[in-house]
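May I ask you to review the protein record following this short note?
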Amino acid sequence: MLIPSPHALPAEVKALYPFQVKEHLTSYGLMRYVDHGPVDGTPVLLLHGNPSWSFLWRKLIVPLAERGFRVIAPDHLGMGLSARPLNWLRLEERIQSIKELVDALSLTSFHLGVHDWGGAIGFGLATRIPERIGNILVTNTGAFLSDNIPQRIALCRLPLVGRFITQYCNGFAWPATWMAVEKPLSSEVKKGFLYPYTSVSSRRSIADFVLDIPMEEDHPTRSVLREIENQLEKLRDKKMLLFWGMKDFCFDETFYAGFAQRFPTAEKIIFPQAGHYVLEDISEVEIARAANFFLQK
């Protein structure tokens, strides 16, 4: 079981990601997570997707902590600085692993922020414990069934070929450093996104996540995602912010519209010139708007 070391972060990455990293042993493996801000502050749980890690949230973690929040940003198992389990974790196990972390930290009430696969995982968690959920920040993600899949991602789901591309050739995490943004990333930021994924074995869950996209009727995750979709109404009274990069090639305007339809009272802030990694394409002033959202009661 391989675990990238938080102590071995390159200096230029550590400068961008200067957070305390803790760990919790779940039933599925060792999970590492950022725990930043006052320990008695209202918790904000931030869930990343694929092929990123908690590094994705670094620009939001700081302003949240400055506003008095305790920010919890885990790396999903097999991702970031967390352990690399040898077994395939699907959506259900990923929801359960985050639930174990939330329970271990005694987060009886917390806000939620999601991106990419973090949406299905986060809404899967939230629909099961809605009484513990506060405000919800939704950024370029999905939590309902859709037939909309880009050809480049469909290619990565092909039997054998898909895993060869995403895991063995690094044909997912590396392209994301330029396909997921509209503004070119600096070399330091690229290195940060790619740091946990420098070997074939470290990229296994990147491929697993792609193959867990439930496009087929008999896909084992399809019923889990369908149930999440059916339970979204439990969250309709929550304060929600749709914070969307409209040049996302994957979670495009159809997913934004899907959330807007299901949550008609949600606040909406769109960025016409931002891509999938929306926080990389917008300014600090705009990111502050997301941080301020969690101050709403």
Remarks:
- The first strand starts at residue 21 and ends at 26.
- The chain has one domain: 6-293.
